[in-house]
Amino acid sequence: MSNTDNQGDVWEVFIQSKPGLPHKHAGSIHATDKEMALQNARDTYTRRQEGTCLWVVPLNAIVSSMPEDNDSFFDPSDDKIYRHPTHYVMPDGAKHI
Amino acid sequence: MEKKDALINYCLRLGDSSLILGQRMAEWCSNGPILEEDIAMTNLALDLIGQARTMLTYAGEIEGKGRTEDDLAYKREEREYYNTLLSERPNGHFGDTVVRNFLHSAFFYHLYQALKNSSDEMIAAHAAKSIKEVTYHLRHSAEWLVRLGDGTSESHNKVQESLNNLWEFTGDLFEMNEVDELLIKEGIAVDLNSIKKDWDKTVNDVLERATLSRPEDEYMQTGRLDAMHSEYLGHLIAEMQFLQRAYPTAKW
Questions:
Q1: Tally of domains within chain A
Q2: Which residues in chain B are contacts of A30 at CB distance < 8 A?
Q3: Residue B70 CA, distance from chain mean position
Q4: Whose CA is closest to A59, among A38, A32, A36, A28?
């Protein structure tokens, strides 16, 4: 996504806090190329040991659902609690579930 | 000259170069071209000031007169600083800062690579810790140099001019005297002639990527070894020391 304020394109930043965990969205930065995006993300979001891996994604590469999609996308799951695995009886030996 | 005095001087050289370059980078705080770069440059400043703290504390300990890192950073006179002449060059425009940082980061990078093997445990540990930070400083400044050098004709011409202007301060980085001679024998210091080859290679590689021409080695400024400085250091120190001079008992 080009923008007119001369700060470069917007990139979204995702940080993995520990190996194996998912990358979580941290915020966004401006940059004009991949290396600058990675460095700006590093300098802006990982100064206090927040992460072990960084992803930067150009904003225009992200496809987002729109607010008007909400009724059809998300509401149908409201009344289907059987989709949550809460009806199982867990054996006593199983922990941390 | 005794080994103790040589070692104090050597630590001041390392610490002061980091301190002064760090102070220069701190001057960019709130003045960066965009927010992200402002934060990046302040990060560099904090890394450098952290490096200075280690070496100035150590210099004070070896001296044994009770001087702390703060005493050494904020209560010395201009002619008692042993920083590189390159580190005190003014920030100028962003391209000037990029070129200065690149040339200096390449120097620190190869210096610390070699000092990791110093027989002085404190210096070796300092080098091993600092190399991680300096590796990033070098990457950051090199990428900007390529971006500007291989950018528009205006950005190319501007950084080529920065490079031409700063080149005469690069000879000073590699000057040595009896301090080096004594400490090289002890395995504490490194021979800067050996680092020069590595520095040349790093600089040449990046300049080529940046489509910039390496200036000729003509007249080189010197002075670091004798604590002789350009007119810029006094102004920098006046600002840096203001608080300690005005309120000598001020504490964090």
A1: 1
A2: 34-36
A3: 19
A4: A28
CATH of the domain at A16: 3.10.20.520
Asked whether residue A54 is domain-assigned, the answer is yes
Provide ipTM, 2 decimals: 0.82
Can you give the residue range of the structural domain that contains A54? 9-83
pLDDT tens-digit map of B85-116: 999 999 999 999 999 999 999 999 999 999 99
The three-point CA angle B83-B58-B170 to 5° equals 20
Q: Coil, strand, or helix at residue A57? A: strand
**Does pLDDT of A80 surpass 90?**
no
> Rounded to whole angstroms, what are the CA distances from B63 to B18, B56, B77?
20, 10, 17
Mean pLDDT confidence for B212-225: 96
User: CB contact, 8 Å: A3 with chain B?
Assistant: no
Residue B71 is inside which H or E element, if any?
A: helix B69-74
Which residue out of A39, A46, A49, A56 would a mutagenesis test of the B interface target, given it has the greatest number of B Cβ atoms within 10 Å? A39
Measured distance CA(B189)–CA(B11) in Å, rounded: 10
Place of tokens 């580190």: B87
**Across the interface, which of B36, B43, B140 has its CB nearest the CB of A29?**
B36
| Dist. CA B70–CA B241, nearest whole Å | 10
Q: Tell whether A46 is within 8 A of chain B (Cβ).
A: no
Does residue B168 lie in a domain region?
Answer: yes
| Strand, coil or helix: A67 | helix
